Amino acid sequence: MCGIIGVVLLYTGLLGKRLGTVIKGCLKNLEYRGYDSVGFALLTEDGALVLRKSKGMLDKVAWKLGFDRFDGVCGIGHTRWATHGRPSDTNAHPHTDCRSEIIVAHNGIISNYLEIKEDLVRKGHVFKSETDTEVIPHLLEELMSKGVKPLDALRETFKILNGAYAFVVILRSEPNKIYFARKISPLIIGLGNGYNFVASDIPAFLEYTNKVIVLRDLELGYVTPTEVYIEHLKEGAVDITKRVRVIDWTPEMARKSGYPHFMLKEIHEQPLALHSTLSSLVSLKGLKNVIDLLINARRVFITGAGTSFHAGLVGDFYLTKLAGIPTYPFISSECWKYKGVFDEGDVLIAISQSGETIDTLMAVRTAKSRGAKILAISNVVDSIIPRESDLVIYTRAGPEIGVAATKTFTTQVLTLLYLSLKISESIGRNSDYSRRVFDELAKVPLMAKEVIVSNEGRVRELSRKLMNKQSILCLGRGLGVPIAMEGALKIKEIAYIHAEAYPAGESKHGPIALIEEGFPVIFILLNDELKEKIMSNIEEMRSRGAYVITLAPGDIELPKRLVNYEIKLPATTPEVGAITYILPLQLLAYYISVNKGYDPDKPRNLAKTVTVE
């Protein structure tokens, strides 16, 4: 999730600092969002442009490029989290049109940028970067060169762009104005006296104003030092008089967008993360190469650590059932088992949110040394595992600050499902069922939002019932098993309760001996051919006094005598359910942790990225 800041002033020095210093400070307040490069562009009163950008961290880049030396009346700044194109000086924002008259900073994914870029290149536009962002200034340039006014050009550009994004634009011809547009990705206006801000999040400008307007989906417009104009793409001009809010947040609260912890914020960010990842997969240029690699593989292995391994287990199910490709999943720290087995013709799918996990990196190097090809799935562009791999798919979850993985897990699972369905389609296994799953996949972002909003209150209530328990059992069948494993891991990680996951069919081979009156057992009940079997397991547990909690589709009526607490989820295929069913378990772990007085963002003894064996 990149950081955007824009500020426009009546005159230089209005905020008591040079504009370059103001932009630097605002970007500093957005560092928590994660980034790999920094840049800014500002305009003087006569329209002269200063553009500086570089790969690296803010303090070093600002010193190297002299942010504090420059002043002006209008400027934009950006911290980039690489998506399209590796981290580099050239790919850093802001980006310009051919004549450097139009300057843009952007957050999100433009899923149809390749076709737009190809069309613009045919018309003579020259691109400098590998980014999707650069199509925006060139589109505006193409329209404005034909006499279209800037706001009209912005509106037409907005209609052309697909994906989830937000961006700001400044024009050398209008040094007192910042244009903006928002589609799904967040964008906020900050209202001052003789100055106004546009930013991707409130912390950017909280030092200067706490009066904000939160832009809504499909809104565009502009700010000047004294004016705000907003319109909805389909509904026209917006009356902003009732939209102004006064924010009573501390700086720390602001960095979390008002959420008490990053983990809760990141749980709620999953609809956007899923949408961004799905958009990027739809436009993935090298998808055919990935499909061909897996179709032609002699054997396919899957590896990861912790949450990424659980995503790999879900991927094993997808590839085997949907694509007809049997796979060999293993925990990366246990790679020694396959040390002498990897061979030419094999493919290893290496899953790591950070791209730096040492055990997974060692598995990659072991497999490569034996001639195997590597497909990396990671959330961090140009990290070491993707660099050492033959092919890469990046998830678009954005930075994840909380140690317990949430949105990176769901985007990994979505990526593996999309890949499996595309392989199925490519080899002619595209059955009616696969097409149904594919249709449901497009609805996953909205489904995730529905699950979070409709269940958070009940999950919070359940957390109070479980917070003093010593142990919890999580049971599932089929795809429910890795979801149970991931849910149990979350409860262990941040609530410090012993939580054990088990295949429900195996529960009578040991775990059932633990059951006594009030022992909590969570059942993952997916809408598949195994639901009748898992009902028998519920009977077994309930008859021994278990406190039974079910995560089940809303269209399945469970006998009230068997269930103590029920979480209702959307009726969907089990393949899509593997993405949505984890959300209540993430919330449950979070609220148990908070109820017990722990900090879920910083669980004891754990690190976000494990770089030691």
Give an overview in words.
With 613 residues, the protein is α/β, with parallel strands linked by helices. The chain folds into three domains: 3-255, Glutamine Phosphoribosylpyrophosphate, subunit 1, domain 1 (4-Layer Sandwich), CATH 3.60.20; 265-442, Rossmann fold, CATH 3.40.50; 453-595, Rossmann fold. The chain contains 19 helices and 25 strands. An eight-stranded antiparallel beta sheet has the order 3-2-4-1-10-9-11-15, covered by helices on one side. Strands 5-6-7-8-12-13-14 form a seven-stranded antiparallel beta sheet. α4 crosses α5 (150-160), α10 (307-321) runs antiparallel to α16 and α15 (444-466) runs parallel beside α19. The longest helix is centred in the last third of the chain and has 23 residues, at 444-466. It is globular and about 80 Å long.
Question: What attributes does this structure have?
Answer:
35% helix, 7-stranded antiparallel beta sheet, 613 residues, 8-stranded antiparallel beta sheet, single chain, 3 domains, Rossmann fold, Glutamine Phosphoribosylpyrophosphate, subunit 1, domain 1, alpha/beta
CATH topology of the largest domain: Glutamine Phosphoribosylpyrophosphate, subunit 1, domain 1
Q: Please give the radius of gyration in angstroms.
A: 25 Å
The percent of residues in helical segments reads 25-40%
Strand tally: 25
CATH architecture of the largest domain: 4-Layer Sandwich
CATH C-level category of the largest domain: Alpha Beta
What oligomeric state is this?
Answer: single chain
Q: What's the arrangement of strands in the largest beta sheet?
A: 3-2-4-1-10-9-11-15
Integer count of domains: 3
What can be said about the biggest beta sheet?
8 strands, antiparallel
For the record, give the distance between the C-alpha atoms at the N and C termini, rounded to a whole number: 30 Å
State the CATH superfamily name of the largest domain: Aminohydrolase, N-terminal nucleophile (Ntn) domain
Shape: globular
SSE-based structural type? alpha/beta
Low-confidence stretches: none
- Beta-strand content estimate: 15-25%
Mean pLDDT: 92
> Total helix count?
19
